[in-house]
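(Structure overview)
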Amino acid sequence: MLSKSIICTVCPMGCNMNVSGEDQNVVDFKIDGNKCNRGVDYAIKEITNPTRVLTSTVAISNAFINRIPVKSSEPIPKALLKEAMKIIGTIVVQAPQTSGDLIVKDILGTGVDIIASRSLDKI
């Protein structure tokens, strides 16, 4: 029997929801505590395939600071976060970089890119 408490993060209301069911079959879920339909969609996604936007930093050469913030262009599966961080930890980029520049294309075959989230000029 599946039973999990989830705090919805889709809107500012932060509904405390309970999800229960026989297994991870979406048809069998019972969801209570949501105040809108977006909460239902969030709960189903969180139980069947939780994803997160990955934020981190990578090393940068020839800039006035030694790290540049990066993020995933879309959420990636939560189970892949540690492996993605291992890859990101090995990267060194060269200044200049512009916010939105591609740092890693299609990380771990997810179709999601890692992009710079700040611009940095050369020193």
